[in-house]
Design a protein that fits this description.
alpha/beta; Quinone Oxidoreductase, Chain A, domain 1; 2 domains; six-stranded parallel β-sheet; 11 helices; 17 strands; about 25% strand; alcohol dehydrogenase (NADP(+)); EC 1.1.1.2; oxidoreductase; zinc
């Protein structure tokens, strides 16, 4: 067993603190990763604070992991020592259900095993990437292309694939008009990726405060949703809307912005329900859908796409001692646009 340094939550209400944990021995199909950077996702905050259900503590969050392979198991065939790799939101699944066999492990019918806070196959609770090392089965690791620096690649393991997957599935591209609700950690990646796919991109944000940023990131248009005239001017405009906001919004109002057969896809995960007026759907044959991260195959596809188009996350690298301050800044929407922990500071 390898004993390592981490930052962990010890309760739903307290700060994260330095904590020592052990990782399992490297098994035949396992890879030991020296973590270099770990992104901070809003879902980390939801989870450690018990907003998505009770947790067992101490809990080490973090599912945007980028690092270097330092050891491989005897039967590992895909990776060797020195490889640049990443780990996202899951570290295992049943591998047998129809969804797993289709390469959509995130929708495993038995429930995928999350990178942290989940019951692993050996009965232990998984611990995440706010740590110096992690041991993961090779099937749930992806290769980070040489064209991507590890720090800007780390958030792609969640924010990148969470937005790439619905844009890919709903065929964003030339001739398509795509709107992105919210310009935060998820939203800024949705704008970059949709723009690279060739779509006409519009940001729908509460105010115009981030308009300059949005246009620099690749948006063609930017509108403030606090202005009621926005909903009148844009009615029936979009083929696809990606909602990245993890809070309650008026879904029915945004559905009216879709063209015939358009889809509004929710990738944010608010704790409260999102009511929908049926007439907002049936009057335009519109769809209200959801999308959750991506499978391992699609995550690799996303990384390769981002490397080809020179897309990385907009990040602020922090030391481990600043994690709690970073959480408060995330909640205050004071981040441009993803915090990334330099795990060399986990001492």
């Amino acid at each position: 067993m390898l004993e390592i340094n981490t930052y962990a939550a010890t309760s739903a209400t307290g700060d994260l603190v330095p904590t020592r944990i052990t990782r399992r021995d490297v098994g035949p199909h396992d890879v030991l990763i020296d973590i270099k950077f770990s992104g901070i996702c809003h879902s980390d905050i939801h989870t450690v604070r018990g907003e998505w259900g009770d947790q067992q503590y101490p809990l080490v969050p973090g599912h945007e992991i980028a690092g270097i392979v330092t050891e491989v198991g005897s039967d590992v065939s895909r990776y060797t020592v020195g490889d640049r790799v990443g780990v996202g939101c899951m570290v295992n699944s049943c591998r047998e259900c129809v969804n797993c066999l289709a390469g959509e492990e995130q929708y495993c019918l038995a429930g995928n095993i999350g990178t942290y806070g989940a019951k692993d196959v050996d009965g232990t609770i998984t611990q995440g990437g706010y740590a110096t090392h992690v041991v993961v089965n090779e099937d749930f690791i992806v290769r980070i292309p040489e064209g991507l620096e590890l720090d800007v690649a780390a958030p792609l393991l969640c924010a990148g694939v969470t937005t790439y997957s619905p844009l890919n599935h709903w065929n964003a591209g030339p001739g398509k008009k795509v709107a992105v609700i919210g310009l935060g950690g998820l939203g800024h990646m949705a704008v970059k990726i949709a723009h690279a796919m060739g779509a006409e991109v519009t940001v729908l944000s509460r105010s115009l405060k981030k308009q300059e940023d949005g246009l620099k990131l690749g948006a063609d248009h930017y509108f403030a949703t606090e202005n009621p005239e926005t909903f009148e001017a844009l009615a029936g405009s979009f083929n696809l809307i990606i909602n990245t906001v993890s809070a309650s919004i008026d879904i029915s109002a945004f559905l009216q912005l879709l063209s015939l057969d358009g889809a509004l896809v929710n990738v944010g995960a608010p704790a409260e329900p999102l009511p929908v007026n049926a007439f907002a759907l049936i009057t335009g044959r519109r769809s209200f859908a959801g999308s959750m991260i991506g499978g391992i195959r699609e995550t690799q596809e996303m990384l390769d796409f981002c490397a080809e188009h020179k897309i990385g996350a907009e990040i602020e690298v922090i030391s481990a001692e600043d994690i709690n301050k970073a959480y408060e800044r995330v909640l205050a929407s004071d981040v441009h646009y993803r915090f990334v922990i330099d795990t060399s500071t986990l001492v």
